[in-house]
């Protein structure tokens, strides 16, 4: 079941990425986009929470919820700043390091130690997702690393990958102290609440801008809600590093959808990344 939930997380993330591709993030303030992602996700999750009812809350819930909300706030804003400041081809590959960072953070935060096959699978998915994102062969595989020195975007995205390797473990602690749907709803509510004062200080008429871009922002919020819902249920059942590794296959799905929807080319050049990721998924699901 956790594999199915992780795959649904990847699919939802991919749909969110594809929907964002129409220059949305370059036209709207990054704080406003971040707030909308959290707020509209919260509105979508509330009815599901009402149906499932509020669970018993553990002693560690609220302090871990506040820490997770603050860290995710920074991650949301840094993620959008990274995309706006540099090309996707050198920023998105940095996200491949989240599963690698998780191999370091998960043992300390939630006491999860993958076996050798699992570690190998995580590393292969990270390598495959990195290779998959090198869109221009002329730039070379090391272009994102050299860009870390010269460009702002890759630096910010590497910071996002590190933060998410921490918040993914916090998600597991939060789920264990409540329920997947209650944690997802609380998390999005806190992010939106923490961002609201910043929005009000930065914008004269934020509601007008949100309303004028609602056709783009609301679907993004719904996709974000689906990501949260499926991911929280998955981490409740399996190791965080495995779930996030499977989630990273959203990059693979985005490539496939990009070919089908946007008629993108160079799919053959990305085949090696696809194969590496597929082997990694097999190692985790069969032997991890």
Give the SSE layout.
Elements: H1 2-19, H2 24-27, H3 30-52, H4 61-85, H5 88-91, H6 98-109, H7 116-132, H8 143-150, H9 152-176, H10 180-202, H11 206-212, H12 214-235, H13 240-247, H14 250-262, H15 271-287
What features would you describe in this structure?
Helix content is 78%, strand content 0%. By secondary structure, the chain is mainly alpha-helical. It has one domain (2-287). It starts with a helix and ends with a helix.
| Rg computed from alpha carbons, rounded to a whole number of angstroms | 18 Å
Q: Percent range for helical residues?
A: over 70%
Termini, distance in Å? 15 Å
Unreliable spans: none
Shape: globular
| Structural class designation | mainly alpha
The description of the largest β-sheet is: none
Number of domains: 1
Q: Give the total of beta strands.
A: 0
The sequence of SSEs as H and E is: HHHHHHHHHHHHHHH
Mean pLDDT: 80
Q: Concise description?
A:
This protein is mostly helical and 288 residues long. The chain has one domain.
């Amino acid at each position: 079941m956790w594999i199915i939930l992780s795959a649904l997380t990847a699919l939802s993330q991919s749909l969110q990425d594809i929907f964002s591709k129409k220059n949305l993030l370059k036209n709207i303030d990054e704080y406003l986009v971040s707030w909308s992602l959290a707020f509209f996700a919260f509105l979508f999750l509330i009815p599901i929470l009402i149906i499932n009812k509020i669970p018993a809350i553990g002693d560690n819930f609220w302090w871990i919820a506040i820490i997770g909300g603050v860290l995710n706030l920074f991650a949301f804003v840094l993620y959008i700043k990274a995309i706006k400041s540099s090309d996707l081809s050198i920023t998105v590959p940095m996200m491949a390091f989240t599963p690698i960072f998780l191999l370091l953070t998960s043992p300390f935060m939630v006491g999860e130690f993958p076996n050798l096959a699992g570690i190998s699978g995580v590393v292969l998915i990270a390598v495959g997702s990195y290779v998959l994102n090198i869109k221009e062969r002329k730039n070379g595989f090391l272009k994102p690393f050299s860009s870390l020195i010269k460009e702002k975007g890759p630096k910010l995205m590497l910071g996002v990958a590190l933060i998410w390797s921490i918040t993914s473990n916090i998600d597991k602690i939060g789920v264990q102290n409540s329920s997947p749907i209650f944690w997802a709803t609380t998390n999005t509510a806190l992010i939106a609440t923490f961002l609201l004062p910043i929005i009000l200080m930065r914008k004269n008429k934020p509601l007008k801008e949100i309303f004028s871009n609602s056709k783009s922002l609301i679907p993004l919020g719904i996709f974000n809600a689906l990501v949260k819902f499926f991911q929280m249920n998955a981490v409740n059942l399996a190791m965080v590093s495995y779930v996030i590794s499977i989630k990273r296959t959203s990059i693979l799905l985005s490539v496939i959808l990009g070919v089908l929807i946007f008629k993108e080319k160079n799919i053959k050049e990305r085949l090696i990344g696809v194969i590496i990721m597929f082997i990694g998924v097999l190692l985790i699901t069969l032997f991890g």
